[in-house]
Write a structure and sequence with these properties.
- With about 280 residues, this protein is of the alpha/beta class.
- The protein is built from 6 helices and 12 strands.
- The chain is globular and about 75 Å long.
- The two termini are about 35 Å apart.
Length: about 280
Amino acid sequence: MNDELISLLVCPRCQGHFELIGNNELCCQKCGYKVELQDGKPLFTSVPATIEPWEKVERGPDKGTAWRRSNWKFLNQEVQALGKDALILDVGAGHGDFADIFAGLHYFSLDIVPYPEVDLVCDLGQTIPFKEDTFEAVVLMNVLEHVYENRKLVQNCAKLLKSGGKLILTVPFLLKVHQAPFDFSRYTPYYLDALARDAGLKVVTLNGYYDTLYLLNESLGNLWLYSIQSGSGLKKFTAKGLVFIIQHLINWLGKLSDKGAIRPVAGEKNPAPVGYLVVLEKKA
């Protein structure tokens, strides 16, 4: 287990420091509280019995959906602006979709599932295993929509930030339900602003990813999968032919129209982004 990580951890019960006992557990030197290790990962909270681990999907700046690619561009830009010695915590890191962005930095990751790529297992909305005022940045990439107690999670993330530290997050808006049944919310800019204020954070950046062609293609895909699979042979054949034509028209339209872009929400006339990309800062 990483010595630097151990030095950052504190007992959730008494704030005492941990020492490593063999290869199987951490023990608080103050109150004796013990934390089991699984494959070298501390388990501060139990893994929900109802959750099924997700398969790893290869991610990168040019891989995945347009929304995912916009996330990569946004996060890479924000991380590059941090100092080389910045301590970074990736919450809900999963299989480390964005881990390549943090290469060579002081980066730690957690999740509620002991994926091979994470450093510790913890539901940060319930338990805080770190010293407060520790990190220059905490990252929540497409995580908040999967957290029922989202306000508590953001408040706990804020506690871990140093003064002036950044909470960097993305959340979808016009995106289908995913990772069911753990998909609870979609957020408006007004909710995100209130969420920040409640946690003692200020909004530095509130951008949307605007891509109407992406939304058109998503809707067309749903039409193909769910709306034209029944009916007579001729009706179904005609519907599929029309979808084929519409798809090609959308592709041609894409060559004539603006590409998807990250733009500030303030002053934006389009109220329908794919999702939001946000930077919050801890007040002094």
